[in-house]
Amino acid sequence: MKITKKVFKEEMIQRLKEKYAMDISDATPQELFHVLGSVVKTYYADDWVQTWKDYLTEETKQVYYFSIEFLPGKMLKSNLLNLGILDTVRDGLTELGFSLDDIVDQEKDMALGNGGLGRLASCFMDSIASCGLPGNGNGIRYDYGLFKQRFVDGYQVELPDEWLNNGNVWEVRKESKAIDVRFGGDVYMMPLADGRLKPVYENSRLIKAVPYDTAMVGYQNDVVNTLRLWSVEIPASEESKYRSLEDRRELEDLTAVLYPDDSNERGRRIRLLQEYFFVSAGVQSIVRYFKKLNKPLTTMSQSIAIHINDTHPALCVPEMMRILLDECDLSWEQAWEITVKVMSYTNHTIMSEALEKWPIELMQDLLPRMYQIIEEIDRRFVNQYRKYYEADLIERTRIIRNGQVHMANLAIIGSHSTNGVAKLHTDLLKNVVLHDFYVIFPGRFNNKTNGIAERRWLQLSNEPLAKLLDKTIKTSWRQKPNDLHLLQNFVEDDAVLSAIEEAKYKNKVALAQYIKETTDIVVSPNAIFDVQIKRLHAYKRQLLNLLHILKLYFDIKAKPDLQMEPRVFIFGAKAAPSYSYAKAIIKTINETAQLINNDPDVKDRLKIVFLENYNVTLAERIIPAADVSEQISLASKEASGTSNMKLMLNGAVTLATLDGANIEIRDAVGKENIVIFGLTEEEVYAYYHAQNYNALGIYEDSPTIQKVLNAFIDGTIPNIQFEGQEIFDSLIKYNDEFFVLRDFDSYCLAQKRIEELYQDKRRWQQISLINIANAGKFSADHTVERYAEDIWQIEPVFAHKELTR
Ligand code: NBY
To answer: Which tens digits make up the pLDDT trace of 560-587?
Structure first.
């Protein structure tokens, strides 16, 4: 698309007049944002229609990525970049007297996700479109996204995220594509004259699922895919059934809020209904589309792939079965073959409390037909495999067990592919967590290491570095992230090395400014910016970070003129509202920040900054300014991590355990260019087997640990009487579930190593460069290409595009 500055400016002036009846010079940034959004939409409208038509007429095989979370953040700049008009628009606006950045500030973050899993889904949407792959997202249009976090007296307080308050320019409501979804009541099977059975529903309810489509614009390739999010409405025909306001409310609330937990949802009715709601609407609309192609249902897997992102959409399996059996009259065997061929599943965690299970009664009550079908899948599974395997193994792998429906078991049994999200994670799935399934279905298991959208996490968020790269290695890296490798040739080039440092410095100045504005804390851009940004979880061990900071603090107190490299420790993290331990950690970090930041003895050698409301937009500010990337989860617990990749791409040095994708980052940069510490996964498992971990012993043997831990309960850290005790007890009384004390010494040594490296300026610059140069490997473009080839069997549409252009 070729848009000139002149045309763009005229369009802005004209549209603003039409929409707000005013001269552009009088417009507020908010008004400008809305007009700009609608102008940008016209720039991709034709391609959006065309992409859709191409898929239909060419009968291209498409993937549908089902995820209960998507976390795109802001979309304006990313759309401009991908349309190739970022500079045109920025310059045009400048000439009109406005700054693009002020207008960008007006856009609300679209935060329909909790953390890594939701953000991964959005990186994949960007990469799928940018690689020209035919793929669409399918999810829920929550009225309220992830809560806004505020700190009050150091405590996390949650406020509703009213992201739709000023409307949403990017979405298109498609009333005509609405779908009826049925739930509740009773169902029984009525025999027909020809011997088949038909379900008869009594007292069930119908709700209407209305899709809202958002364009997923590919990077300068004319491909525009669709993210389809469903919203609930009560169909006119059903109005009379709702006598009480409460009844109505329960339904209307179905798509009201995103559950703010990133590990477990304890069997809540509305959550199960949410899962079925978007699955049923999505699968029904896919089958409706497939029928338009006039092909035999038995060939569905040649046209359609459905991806189940974690177990939340696992009902895709029985829902597809229901449609094929009840509405298309296929036999069980035919329906099952199609379903398994179409479905694939990604697992994102080995933490057992996060493996989703639903009580049988709840499932029967809310989704009676789903339950019948799951029972039959379970029965047939047991029947088929008990011939070959011992009874215990079958018992452990079946779907219905101990009064519960095991969703991971359903997803694995009902799909042809199960993947983990980093090499170590996949190995643990095969060898430990899902080993029983691996025995039965060895060919279904595969690894797909996560990746990130390099466009957002470098091109958009780190302009100083992006420009430097253009100058140094030309611009091909923008199309092909692997070309970042070219930077490796400059590892001995002093000019390039110091330019990298200058770009980092610039970003640090900008972050320091933001920190001053939002927290009133003054930090020096000359200090080491040490960053830990991720959800607050015991296994991610923000506590280990804090213990080390306290150690540094006591070192200073013991030796007031201690020479050390000044440090700023930056945290960004939300805790699930119901996760009281995580909230205690937040409170404690905030109180420690008060203590240290205001102690005159510290003299700016140490600062703690806990930024409020960590989200995609804040990540885009912090990551370009980071010197050190904290990836310190207990080995074996972090499935992959993705902030590790984003920070590396921006030249931060990784300080990490051998967990998740950290291992692959080490392999990519070489062990001299990363700082590794702590127990390995084998050592962690050895402790589990021997059951001989003794946190109290470590405490008793180490005066340093005693000093640091006692600060939690002796009043040294103020205002944490309750929280301090809770944390102390978690380590000593409850034997330190995540081996924080065991890894403490090793972590402190690693931090010492970071300081030494930083003091060798040139060496640090080189490590930084090597990290950037080797980050292309972690582009989500590669990841989705692997999914496309190995799992979905879909192909890019470029060949066609080239011909018709
Ligand atoms: O998925 C994360 C993993 O912890 C991280 O290591 C990985 O990089 C990332 C992408 O693969 N998992 C995650 O973010 N999980 C969730 O957000 C989540 C959300 C909801 C629920 C469970 C997990 N839930 O049960 O409601």
So the answer is: 999 999 999 999 999 999 999 999 999 9
Annotated active-site residue 621? The verdict is no
* 3-state helix vs strand vs coil in the chain, percent to 5: 55, 15, 30
Taken in order of first residue, the domains within the chain and their CATH numbers are 1-58+76-107 (no CATH), 63-74+109-356+407-450 (3.40.50.2000), 525-766 (3.40.50.2000)
Q: Is residue 435 among the annotated active site residues?
A: no
- Mutate which of 65, 66, 67, 117 to test ligand 1's pocket (most atoms within 8 Å of Cβ)? 117
The DSSP bridge partners found for residue 161 are 145
The amino acid that residue 382 corresponds to is V
Whether residue 409 contacts residue 355, with contact meaning beta carbons closer than 8 Å, is answered with no
Q: Are strands 135-140 and 675-676 parallel, antiparallel or unpaired?
A: unpaired
Determine the 3-state secondary structure of 414 from DSSP.
coil
Which tokens is 313 given? 């959409």
Q: Is 534 a catalytic residue?
A: yes
Torsion of CA 45, 463, 632, 603, to 10 degrees: -140
Q: Are 731 and 723 in contact (CB under 8 A)?
A: no
Compute how many other C-beta atoms are within 10 angstroms of the C-beta atom of residue 102: 13
Residue 431, both tokens: 């060898």
Size of the chain, expressed as the number of residues it contains: 805
Catalytic pick from 182, 312, 406, 534? 534
- Residues 686-731 have pLDDT tens digits of 999 999 999 999 999 999 999 999 999 999 999 999 999 999 999 9
The active-site residue out of 119, 398, 504, 535 is: 535
440 near 385, Cβ under 8 Å? yes
Give the tokens for residue 677.
């510490």
The Cα–Cα gap between 292 and 590 comes to 58
Pocket test for ligand 1, best of 268, 310, 644 (most atoms within 8 A of CB): 310
User: How many Å apart are CA 304 and CA 301, to the nearest integer?
Assistant: 5
**Neighbouring residues of 437: CB distance < 8 A, sequence distance ≥ 6:** 397, 409, 412, 418, 444, 445
